[in-house]
Design brief:
Blueprint: E1 15-18, H1 22-32, E2 34-40, E3 47-52, E4 55-60, H2 66-78, E5 84-93, E6 103-110, H3 117-120, H4 131-144, E7 148-155, H5 164-172, E8 177-179, H6 182-191, E9 195-205, H7 214-233
Helix pairs in contact: 2-6, 4-7
Bound molecules: 1-O-phosphono-alpha-D-ribofuranose (R1P) and uracil (URA).
Organism: Phaeobacter gallaeciensis
Subunit structure: Homohexamer; trimer of homodimers.
GO molecular function: purine-nucleoside phosphorylase activity; uridine phosphorylase activity
Amino acid sequence: MTIHIGAETGQIAETVLLPGDPYRAKWAAETFLTEVQQVNNVRGMLGFTGFWNGHRVTIQGSGMGMPSLSIYVNELIKDYGAKTLIRIGSCGGMQENVGVRDIILAMTASTLSTPSRGIFKELNFAPSADYGLLHKAFHAAQAKGTPTHVGGIYSSDVFYDERPDLNEQMVRHGILGVEMEAAELYILAARHKCRALAVLTVSDHLLTGEALPSDQRESSFGDMVEIALEAAFANQD
Ligand SMILES: O=P(O)(O)O[C@H]1O[C@H](CO)[C@@H](O)[C@H]1O
Ligand SMILES: O=c1cc[nH]c(=O)[nH]1
């Protein structure tokens, strides 16, 4: 049991999927896992452990933004021994060829700042995904036929952005989408020698203004969860 996670030692699997939304954790656990046990409800940040194709996996909400994710990921790694951490999140599309419902596999995550800024000081560390997970996720997505993009994303500290000039530069430099957690996940994984990846579903588009209606989100998000699970456990069957 930690300050923010009520699970007993041993109740968290080595592989953890991390949606920002705790209700997405509940939906994904109930939809994709068997023998599901709720392992956290501290602050309503729901977490569940169960099995997928015989593999033990935890799905734990991370909250919105890097400071929140940092709390859960620090405790999952340091107190519960998590080794593979895959974010399953929504994001805003930023390129014309990226459509709503498409999947983005975040190879790198640019930022203005992260909770780790203080330790890096003048170093502009480049947060990047675990290549093995990225490679497996790409093949899993291709096998499904889900439109998938691999490349750089932007992890923002704000949802309501006031810097259109910055967005212009990111679009110009090929950034695929914007979300709010992946960069700090990648940094923490690097620091603690864990594997991390962000698998994202495009829920809205910054250039077109298109947004996925809430009733259509579940099925699109399903592909993302399956891709994450297949990547985590590829070659382990
Ligand atoms: O859908 P989730 O995983 O929460 O991710 C995205 O949605 C939230 C903003 O609405 C932020 O957490 C952002 O990263
Ligand atoms: O952070 C996010 C998530 C979804 N859509 C956005 O535009 N931003």
